[in-house]
Amino acid sequence: MKILITGGHLGPALAIIAEIGNKAPIIFVGRKYALEQEKTLSLEYKEIAKRNIPFYHLPAGRFTRLLNLMSIYNVLKIPLGFYQALAVLTKIKPDLILSFGGYIGLPVCSIGFLLRVPIFIHEQTMKPGLANRLTGFFAKKIFISFPESRKYFPRSKVIVSGNPVRKAVLTIHRKPFDIKTTSDVVKKNKPVIYFTGGSLGSHSVNAHLEKVLPQILKNYIVIHQTGRIRHYNDYQRLMEKRSKLPTELKKNYYLRDYFYENELGYVYGTSNLVVGRSGANTVFELIAWRIPSIFIPLPWSANQEQLKHAQLFQKAGVAEIFQQSDNSENLLRIIEKVSANLESYKNNFKNVKLLYKENAAEIIVQTILSDYSS
Question: Cys-Cys crosslink for 85: which of 28, 111, 116, 236, Cβ 3.0 to 4.6 Å?
Fold first, then answer.
């Protein structure tokens, strides 16, 4: 049996790949480049290549909310994506397809359905995107992370599996650096704040931190994952800024462009507070670690999915929301508010603990393998 994995959310895909192990050979179909115009290798390509899994690049087009030359070019590429999906599937002949949504998942699943390959999909967000909603009509089983997503799919196909979280990020494997503090002695040491824009980084998150960096470093230790998009050059600029900080502030600022999954366990385990985007993978990792957060929802995320996640967690009492368009000084005030009440926020994780299923990956893999065998 040969399993093809595709789609737009890498975190749960990697969790599933780890769960499958040597039960079946895996092929991954995705995008080789994070930004086509820069030819920057994508995170998914790097992570899949590291696991010695065959990777097929599919330069599919997609609809975007912006109207410019690049968006027109993307729309024109949509038919090409279906043609190339046909070429890939005809060549590798998978026995089943597991998709995690996104503009690459749609052509792969559509062609797979026409070739009579069983389709399984996983939806990470509260409100599914267009690709998964369309694919849901011909999928055999639909796995969802939030019970609220059930209403968007044929109910007989839906399984509330939860969102698979990579086991590698739940354990401390490798220290990217050594921070002289622990979450158990916050009152004696400076609290540790992890700023992140997700795997690719976020220029907006970086810019907000940069504006108040000296003030924050006086009272907090900061771990900052910037991403490395050449257009903004944030990582290099902030490294230069760090080098010019006074010694007492510089030692509180730990800067990286990217953390590998075997390093994230240490970052989460050391952090008392996380500031960043509210994508599905991030919020489930934060539930697993019980880390209070300040979410900066991506304003143009599909269906306002990040805002919905942030609002759910704010209502549960484990997070606060800072709007990207707001003043950076207000972010500083929210940080002070949350850091002064960390234990209260942590205790409120009981309000969301039912969302996190430790065996989500096992549920999905057992279901697709048993369904295929039958």
Answer: 111
